[in-house]
Amino acid sequence: MEHVLLEIDGLQIEAKPGESVLEAALNHSIFIPHLCHEEGHQEPFGGCRLCFVEIQGKATPVTSCTQPVKPGMIVRTNTDTVRRLQRSALRLILSNHRVDCVGCFAHKRCRLQELARALGVGLKVSGLKDLSLQESIDSSLGKVLYDRSKCVLCGKCVSWARTNKTGVFQFVGRGLATRIGLFPFEGDQEILEGSWDVCPVGALFPADAAKVKQAPSSDSPHDP
Fold first, then answer.
1. CB 180 within 8 A of CB 169
2. pLDDT tens digits for 43-83?
3. Is the residue at 106 inside a domain?
4. Are residues 107 and 182 in the same domain?
5. pLDDT tens-digit map of 173-218
6. Domain containing 35 — which CATH number?
7. In this structure, what CATH number is given to the domain that contains residue 106?
8. Which of 26, 43, 64, 138 is the most buried (most CB within 10 A)?
């Protein structure tokens, strides 16, 4: 199979035909912020709007997960314009996320914490309306609980449900009313145990998870 040659941040790399710019970058350890991408799962979603890059010849930045690699493509991942768009996207996501790191199931492995560090954004945003909800736990699936107030609609659980042919997680509603709907599952309940691992923000967690309150660690990202 012939490889596609392209340039990312001045580095000449090889990519497989059909790969996205995001996949090609990640395969060569080039950092591009992303949240909704899940390797091997779904068609590009582009929902988080974090993976912006500039591509020579395109008038405006584009989401790298939706751009297939092309021979001779020249990509920039860290320009001032790109970083500004990425930070704005992350701040918007955080405005919809109830920040409660201590005791959260995803604490210290939370993708939002990692992105906040990388982009220099405080977890508690200012200058934007706080759209987060109060804690709202859906326990209808039994083994796995869903806290809508932490969900950022990345779609990873929906993709997981499709891959595992369960249909338990689906997008419902439109526009600002979009949310994740939980639907009954009559199959082997053990399969649900893998669902919380795919959630990057702790909105899904096991019903028997111990909520141990911990003192904030020195490496936790807080407002500057």
1. yes
2. 666 678 899 999 999 999 999 999 999 999 999 999 999 99
3. yes
4. yes
5. 887 788 899 998 887 778 888 888 889 999 999 988 744 333 333 3
6. 3.10.20.740
7. 3.30.70.20
8. 64
The model's pTM is: 0.79
Domain total of the chain: 2
Q: How many CB atoms lie within 10 A of CB 117?
A: 13
Angle, helices 80-95/111-119, rounded to nearest 10 degrees: 140
Closest among 69, 78, 62, 57 to 27, alpha carbons compared: 69
Burial class of residue 45, CB neighbours in 10 A (0-12, 13-18, 19+): buried
Q: Kindly give the residue spans of alpha helices, DSSP state H, lying in 120-155.
A: none
Strand residues in the chain grouped as ranges (E):
4-8, 11-15, 52-55, 62-63, 74-76, 137-138, 144-147, 169-172, 179-182, 204-206
DSSP string of 23-59?
HHHHHTT-----SS--TTTSS----S---EEEETT-S
